[in-house]
Amino acid sequence: MKKETLSRRERVMRAIEHKPVDRTPIDLGMHYSTGISAFAYQNLRRYLGLEEKPIRVADSFQFLALVDEDVLERFHCDCICFHPGYPATKTWRPREDYAFEIAEGIITERQPDGAWVFRGEKGGRMLSPAGGYFFDGVGFDPWPEDIPYLPTVAKHTERIFKETDYFTMFVGGVGAYFYDNPDYLVRMMLEPELVKEDCAREFEANIQYTSEIIKNCGETIQGLCLACDLGTQTAPFINPQLYADLFAPWLKKYIDFVKRNSDYKIFFHSCGAMEPMIPILIECGIDILNPVQVACANMEPAALKQKYGDKVCFWGGGCNSQGALAHGTPEDVRANVRDLMSKLAPNSGFVFNQVHNIMGNVKPENIVAMLDTAYEESFRYGSL
Predict the structure, then answer these.
(1) Going from the N-terminus, what domains does the chain have, and what CATH number goes with each?
(2) I need a labelling partner for 221 at 20 to 30 A (CA). Which of 7, 116, 146, 242 fits?
């Protein structure tokens, strides 16, 4: 096996910039759509025989774990989540021997049928059915009001930057203008001028918050995330031309601001069959596209790589979460990883990650097969 010659941060940056790498970079949990369910994470740690430690939850809606550095090192990961963890936590025991550290501000209520409700102290209610792995409903932010968020994040990202060589980016706090709820989709058609006014207000809020991110975090982060789902399983939510006319100008204006004022890379998250939107996003200035949902219509990875591989970095698409990872054997997973990497990894411009998050019921042996195979295969696509 070839040797690594780059630091983690260098490897990821070079992949984003389509420069030669020593091996394909690997991510597990840097973003809230590249992560792992806390349930699956506890199972994984035990399967690996790692030290028992609190399973910290950063995203209580999707119920994602903060991935610890011993796991990142075990799987040769190059990225780490920016979230510092909640300042005050409590242990939540939903069932069996599962135990998780959640934000102290979350009010937990067990229902008569075994379901769980999470409430915020100032509103918001989320429900997970009996035996569930995540929550649905009206989300809320349980970060305590008396502790400033951005300075706390900045202290954590400074530690990451100075004491490790992991790549990280800021996630959250900035809108991407388009929303896929039915009322908003109707409003686009009936009241486009009001939608433009919404975008103008959102742009001003984005600029204000992003300025604070840049001021607080500076060079300790390497990117910013924008997220909105532009596709369903079979097609874009709206006509691409409507998106180009209504929303793309605001997205481009925002990205231009970021790139004038920082060296941050723009990570754009969109689930679904959104291939017709990709050239619009590239024109707006995105650097990274995630999660590359290969099970959706017209999202065939070889075709995407051929059309757009020299213009955008694909972050994800390395294992089909709706297929082999969730339902296959470890050998199915290994075959799926080899196949998808052969299409997405050549010539740099790719960071390995499964399609979206690892669900709570995914077997740990499948997770190990995926990440170990990704590392083994990663050297095939290095040229340094």
Answers:
(1) 8-34+148-381 (3.20.20.210)
(2) 146
